[in-house]
């Protein structure tokens, strides 16, 4: 197996930044990683690779924050997400790599803007909405590797407590990433190239986990990091869509 230094440094740097953000806010790993990675690697390698890379990071953070998870909400979202995953996997498999790169770039810009919208008043009966959010997130997870924005918006609208929202989000992403990988494997998208990509980014994953653990106990202005990350997502998305 080759170990090209530039690719390893690039992938590890992106994963370090994204992993640090994920640990602070509960979301952002895939949202930040994928538009930056598709500038260098094919989307069909990046999407399953990023999903695989999130598994050890998400597992470690779940162990740390598991007491704050809302299991009822988690079950509704993950259960409905399964319905949308097969369609997303076929979209990823059957779309040209350059077209997919531009589609991912545009999608990231749109999702970054959507995350800034004011969520309004909470839904009174949220079970049906929760199911719709889950299905859409499942489709996004297996097609572009990002399931977070619909769930984040739903959590903001329902005014979830910060600790519960962070723990439930990262656990939800851990579940949807695992399920999406199973679907991608079934349709033939999961390959050895994606595994090699994961190994290249492994040093950054470790640094991201350690950085997030350190900062979480010391940094309380999470909104600052959130705005920075959204700006980086938009910049990466525009670059992926244009170049």
Please explain how this structure is put together.
There is one protein chain. The chain contains ten helices and no strands. With 243 residues, the protein is mainly α. Helix 5 runs antiparallel to helix 10. The chain starts with a helix and ends with a helix. The model has no long low-confidence stretch (mean pLDDT 77).
Topology readout:
Layout: H1 5-25, H2 29-37, H3 43-65, H4 71-94, H5 97-114, H6 127-143, H7 148-157, H8 162-186, H9 192-216, H10 222-242
Helix pairs in contact: 1-2, 1-9, 1-10, 2-3, 2-10, 3-8, 3-9, 4-6, 4-8, 5-10, 6-7, 6-8
In terms of per-residue confidence, which ranges show pLDDT below 50 for 5 or more consecutive residues?
A: none
Measured between the Cα atoms of the first and last residue, the distance is 29 Å
Assembly context of the chains: single chain
Count of alpha and pi helical runs: 10
Q: How is the biggest beta sheet arranged?
A: none
Shape: globular
Order of helices and strands: HHHHHHHHHH
Give me the Rg, rounded. 16 Å
Number of strands: 0
Structural class: mainly alpha
Number of domains: 1
Portion in beta strands: under 5%
Mean pLDDT level: 77
Helix content: over 70%
Question: Keywords, please?
Answer:
243 residues, mainly alpha, 10 helices
Task: Offer a quick outline of the entry.
This protein is 79% helix and 0% strand. The protein contains ten helices and no strands.
């Amino acid at each position: 197996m080759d170990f090209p230094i530039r690719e390893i440094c690039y992938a590890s740097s992106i994963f370090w930044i994204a992993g640090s953000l994920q640990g602070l806010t509960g979301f952002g790993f895939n949202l930040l990683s994928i538009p930056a990675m598709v500038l260098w690697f094919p989307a069909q390698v990046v999407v399953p690779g990023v999903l695989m890379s999130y598994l050890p990071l998400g597992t470690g953070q779940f162990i740390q924050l598991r007491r704050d998870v809302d299991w009822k909400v988690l079950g509704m979202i993950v259960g409905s997400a399964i319905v949308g995953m097969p369609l997303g996997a076929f979209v990823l498999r059957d779309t040209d790599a350059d077209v997919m790169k531009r589609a991912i770039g545009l999608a990231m810009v749109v999702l970054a803007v959507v995350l800034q919208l004011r969520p309004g008043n909470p839904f009174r009966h949220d079970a049906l909405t929760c199911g719709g959010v889950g299905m859409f997130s499942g489709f996004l997870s297996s097609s572009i590797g990002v399931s977070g924005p619909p769930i984040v918006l739903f959590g903001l609208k329902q005014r979830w407590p910060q600790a519960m929202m962070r723990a439930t989000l990262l656990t939800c992403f851990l579940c949807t990433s695992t399920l999406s990988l199973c679907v991608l494997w079934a349709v033939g998208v999961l390959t050895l190239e994606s595994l090699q990509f994961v190994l290249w980014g492994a040093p950054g994953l470790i640094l991201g986990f350690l950085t997030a653990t350190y900062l979480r106990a010391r940094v309380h202005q999470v909104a600052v990091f959130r705005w920075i990350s959204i700006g980086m997502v938009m910049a990466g998305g525009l670059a992926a869509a244009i170049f």
